[in-house]
Amino acid sequence: MQTIIEPFRIKSVEPIYFNTREQREDILKKAFYNPFLIKSTDVLIDLLTDSGTSAMSSQQWAGIMQGDESYAGSPSFFRFEHVVQQITGMPLVIPTHQGRAAEKILFSIIGGKGKFIVSNTLFDTTRANIEYSGAVGVDLLCAEGKLPSVPAPFKGNMDTVALERFIADKGAANIPLVIITVTNNSGGGQPVSMQNVREVKRICAAHNIPLFIDACRFAENAWFIKIREEGYATKTVEEIARELFSYADGCTMSAKKDAFANIGGFLAMHNADLALQCRNLLVITEGFPTYGGLAGRDLEAIAIGLMEVMDEHYLQYRIRSIEYLTNKLIAAGVPVMLPAGGHAVYIDSKAFLSHIPVHQYPGQALVSALYVTGGIRSVEIGSLMFGKYDDNGALIPAQMELVRLAIPRRVYTQSHIDYVAEVIIEVYNNRLKISGLKITEEAAMLRHFTAKLAPVTE
Ligand code: F0G
User: Three-state DSSP class for 96?
Assistant: First the structure.
């Protein structure tokens, strides 16, 4: 097979920053072993997130110049609205400054005490917005999705048997929404099959529960459906995306992922009453409904990016580049989430650092080692991010202890990725020298962003 190449040329570049291992040890210590507290100019390869970090295309930059900054009724809004309507089939489109702003508005309206919001896996900001409203977020991921080392084509699927049981148990009246995250970010960037979405929709419809899609990575999910699910090989990505959205009553989206934008998001839906309530809140928190927290130029960049992301050469390269890194790690024996996901490589840090107990945060210890060894910034998706405490103050760990290396879109080349693999393998071969961490300071919500840690040996 021929090498699948980057389907773009580079027109503009920016420097990356080199430093030494000794410098990085010092930087990490001063950042309290939390990668969110490191300056990006102290990072060599930044895989903290694929969100807002994409390289925009020349078309998008041209769109930036065409942005119309009128407060109301900007043509940039109408171009944006048209593209979102075309892809989602949803007539009511509400721009927000990013995904969590859409979540905040939605769950302020439909959440609240005594309510349950059910998902395959809620992303952390989604869960936080649900809990902030007083509602409870419930993850019903399929069994194979919880087993990092077991490959399966659609590990992001919802457990539909558990969904039926949950609805019977809690009552449909207490479940204002089911939301499916595509691809399932917190569960390894794994896709959801069309069949699963269809089945979830059937169950929701039988109980009059609206179904929403958290659509941040809809195009990557659509590509997986095309290459893995029977009956979709000859369909275009746009056709697949449209079918996917056709089962949903609405969606939230962070345009910072699959729209290649550096900022932005939206809500889209069919229900006019709900849209009216959302727009009323939008005016207070985001802005007038034709800009919603964004500049006209951002709306242009999103509209263009949403169409670009469905290019099949791009998606083939994108998914292949994640698989390429995953395969290099597998060959070296590094325990990774299988199969490769859509936007990131997930290392199973529980297996990688099996000598570090969960309450000493093996994921965060691995994140620290990757930074010190090679200047690579990654993020823990485990008990630092999702852990809770029981009544006695003991840690209730997360389901999995993953470390995510999220690959920004169109930003790094194959040699950057080769370097990343070399560093991870070096850390793996020296893993027994790594020790655990303890938390010295933390916030009540989303603690991973600001928590301070220290080596347990100190
Ligand atoms: N939903 C999912 C599945 C996400 O991955 C994110 C963001 C959001 C919602 C919120 O969107 O950042 O625009 O407010 N994920 C980023 C990440 C932050 O690193 O995975 P946002």
Answer: strand
Report pLDDT digits (tens) over 304-333. Answer: 999 999 999 999 999 999 999 999 999 999
The structure's pTM equals: 0.96
Any idea which architecture 58-308 has in CATH?
Answer: 3-Layer(aba) Sandwich (3.40)
Q: Which CATH homologous superfamily contains domain 21-50+311-455? A: Aspartate Aminotransferase, domain 1 (3.90.1150.10)
Reduce the DSSP state of residue 390 to 3 states and report it: coil
Determine the residue of 216, 262, 449 to mutate for testing ligand 1's pocket, defined as the one with the most ligand atoms within 8 A of the Cβ atom.
Answer: 216
Separation between Cα atoms, residue 240 and residue 340, nearest integer Å? 21
Domain ranges for the chain, please list them.
21-50+311-455, 58-308
Pick the atom of ligand 1 nearest to 254's CA: 13
Q: Per the structure block, which two tokens stand in for 392?
A: 């006695």
280 C-beta neighbours (distance < 10 Å), count: 12
Question: What is the position in ligand 1's atom list of the atom closest to the CA of 101?
Answer: 14
Name the residue of 47, 51, 298 whose CB sits within 8 Å of the most ligand 1 atoms, as the mutation to test its pocket: 51
* Cα(214) to centroid(ligand 1), Å: 9
Give the model confidence (pLDDT) of 57-89 as tens digits.
999 999 999 999 999 999 999 999 999 999 999
